[in-house]
Write a structure and sequence with these properties.
It is built from 15 helices and 5 strands. Strands 3-5-4 form a 3-stranded antiparallel beta sheet, sandwiched between helices. Strands 1-2 form a two-stranded antiparallel ribbon. Helices cover 63% and strands 5% of the residues. It has helices at 23-44, 49-67, 74-83, 90-112, 117-128, 158-173, 181-195, 202-216, 228-233, 235-248, 251-290, 297-303, 311-316, 322-334, 352-359, and strands at 142-143, 150-152, 308-309, 338-343, 346-351. Strand 1 and strand 2 (150-152) form a beta hairpin. It is mainly α. The chain has 2 domains: 23-269, Orthogonal Bundle (Fic-like fold), CATH 1.10.3290; 291-359, Arc Repressor Mutant, subunit A, CATH 1.10.10.10.
């Protein structure tokens, strides 16, 4: 019997004994997979994929951190990422850590060909920038923000937690259970949240794991799907559905929630990618027409790497020397494509159209 005030050491191991593929779930799986496949196909056609991933990963880092009440503005985030100063606000540092942790996880999984407990722990370590690791002390409780009442107490005891993580690792990498990967992703996400293995960073680590799993299963080639925006908009339903799996064994609503999140955020990403590509094409045509002497494909790509551009970004891309790079960006500002702004000792140039797209 589940008791929210007692450690849930009886959290069932995977796989579940019950049938998860209800008629409603199977129907929703079809539409979610269709939307995801369209996103994958579109992402694969983008000429400069690193540029796209760079932009969208920053947005996901912001949104996923916001779910944990780590609030930053788009302006603060883009500026901090461009300047890359060590003296930045702790909240901004946590968001930027998310991005770095995600990329580390992506590279480790690509190299190893598996999603392991050690990789998940490394992601959490980079995210929090500490090595406390799996919690060994009792006392972790999840409470209702409004009432203060305990709604869930995760498993306690490092051996218990490691056993459940080991079971989860086996489930992630095994094909013994024939489930659609999107349904399996929902199960993995619940199980990780329920194990709640760390003192902090569980939610953000779990949300990274969603996308990494889809890439591991080759449903995505690139990390361009991010569920955090949907979770922010439906935060109450997200947490209610999670706890109902624990308290009532109500899997259907949880899986349907996650499938809807995949479908809607796929459509959102498709729209955003198309808008970015269209803006790039219009900007390229404008520069060719108004500033033909400075136009190059590489210059356009640099000013679309992130909303804030510095002279050093143009230099590091090997386009021109510093003095000429400064002149190029000034000319782009004079046409209205960029906007020059002082940030301490740095001079930044904002890609106004790109900033507007990402902010909205």
């Amino acid at each position: 019997m589940f008791d929210p005030d007692k450690p849930y050491n009886d959290l069932p191991l995977l796989p579940q004994k019950q049938n998860l593929e209800t008629i409603r779930v199977l129907r929703k799986t079809v539409s979610a997979n269709k939307a995801l496949a369209e996103l994958k196909g579109l992402g694969d056609t983008i000429p400069n994929q690193s540029m796209l991933i760079n932009l969208l990963t920053l947005i996901e880092a912001k949104d996923s951190s916001e779910i944990e009440n780590i609030i930053t503005t788009h302006d603060e985030l883009f500026r901090a990422f461009s300047i890359q100063s060590r003296n930045i606000d702790p909240s901004l540092k946590e968001v930027l850590n998310y991005r770095e942790a995600f990329w580390a996880g992506y590279n480790m999984i690509s190299e190893k060909g598996l999603i392991t407990t050690n990789i998940i722990c490394k992601i959490q370590e980079l995210l929090l920038n500490n090595t406390t690791g799996i919690h060994s002390l009792p006392g972790t409780k999840l409470k209702n923000d409004r009432t203060g009442k305990t709604i869930y107490t995760p498993p306690e005891g490092e051996m218990v937690i490691r056993e459940k993580l080991g079971n989860l690792e086996h489930y992630i990498n095994s094909d013994a259970v024939e489930l659609d990967p999107l349904i399996k992703m929902a199960v993995i996400h619940y199980q990780f949240e329920a194990i709640h293995p760390y003192y902090d960073g569980n939610g953000r680590t779990g949300r990274m794991l969603n996308v990494l799993y889809l890439i591991y299963k080759k449903l995505l080639s690139l990390p361009v799907l991010y569920l955090s925006s949907y979770i922010i908009k439906n935060k109450g339903a997200y947490y209610n559905s999670l706890i109902e799996v624990t308290s009532k064994n109500e899997w259907e609503n949880w899986i349907l929630f996650m499938l809807e999140a995949v479908e809607q955020t796929s459509f959102d990403a498709i729209g955003r990618i198309r808008n970015i590509r269209s803006l790039m094409e219009r900007t390229s045509d404008q520069v060719k027409t108004e500033l033909p002497k400075i136009y190059s494909k590489e210059l356009i790509e640099v000013i679309f790497q992130q909303p804030y551009c510095k002279i050093s970004h143009v230099v590091e891309a090997g386009i021109v020397a510093r003095r000429v790079a400064s002149e190029y960006l000034k000319q782009l500002a004079e046409t209205g494509i960029l906007e020059r702004r002082k940030a301490g000792r740095d001079v930044l140039f904002i890609n106004k159209g790109l900033y507007s797209l990402l902010k909205n």
